Amino acid sequence: MHLYVRADANSIIGTGHIMRCIALAQAWQDQRGEVTFISCCESGSLKERIQGEGFSLYPIDVVCPDPSDLRITLSILESDITDQRKWLVLDGYHFTPAYQKAIREAGIHLLVIDDMNHLPQYHADILLNQNIHSPELTYHCDEDTVLLMGTQYVLLRREFLRYRNFKRQIPERARNILVTLGGADPDNVTLRVLEALKLLEDPDIEVKIVSGPANPHRDALNEAMSSIHFKAELPINPKGMPELMAWADMAISGEEAPVGNWLLWVYQA
User: Which tens digit of pLDDT belongs to each residue from 197-248?
Assistant: First the structure.
């Protein structure tokens, strides 16, 4: 079966929607299925990541609520005549109930990934919310929708699965600090965190600040790092995120960080 993923990435919405869909796509690929991403993606490195995983990429320039988005997406799906059991994964807060309903009415199986229960109605074969609070939410959805709620359904990419038996050693005082505030961080909260860490006046700490591929504030961060008095690095879109997480004694992280499963990691520890 062919899996299609409809998710976007830019400096406003970040990269997390695509990154967690890569985890699902990897699992599909492990079952010898084909995967195609349909995406309005501004990041060249993220496009390379998608294609480097062996997935096809169909770039588009318009997004919902523009009606061209739905029209283009349906035309791509309907042009594939090799598989009558097509699945589409929809991940993004801008996809409306009308968009979801049109996908289902076209006879396409639909998995919607959500975090906030922000829509008045959901139309999907499967609705997935992997967050720890999701079992407490009341969704209004189609009668035949299957709900997958909670951390047991979390989307973990292959590189994280290698650490499933990792045992963390917790020191009395944290020295290694990881800062990761999303693939975009449009409000540059990372800079405010760095300024706060300066106030510690502790030369013994080591800080690694992850800058995602859609972060527009790298110059400001580099300038701020020139005046700090502790060891610090600014890795850009690092490949070894699990290793950084294992290295860290503590993390300062946003809800939609590029490793969107950090809270799960801490919870399991």
Answer: 988 889 999 999 887 766 777 788 888 888 888 998 887 667 788 999 999 9
